[in-house]
Inverse folding.
């Protein structure tokens, strides 16, 4: 059995050279928003996850949209 030494170049795979994608590492929009933690009953969390998934978004984005809609319903223009 012929054994090959591992390739040391991280930009090269066993299939050949890998494409290198240049990414902008600067934060968008001034950086990350601060975290907001809350406790949710597991049964409620499951319902919320299912609804967010049905709408094709993460639970965090679904909750943000829900909060924006609630503010608009009260006549308050959401910021951010």
């Amino acid at each position: 059995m012929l054994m090959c030494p591992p390739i040391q170049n991280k930009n090269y795979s066993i299939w050949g050279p890998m494409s290198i994608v240049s990414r902008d590492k600067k934060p968008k929009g001034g950086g990350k928003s601060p975290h907001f933690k809350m406790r949710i009953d597991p049964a409620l969390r499951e319902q919320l996850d299912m609804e967010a998934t049905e709408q094709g978004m993460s639970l965090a984005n679904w909750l943000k949209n829900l909060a924006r809609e609630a503010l608009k319903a009260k006549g308050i223009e959401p910021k951010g």
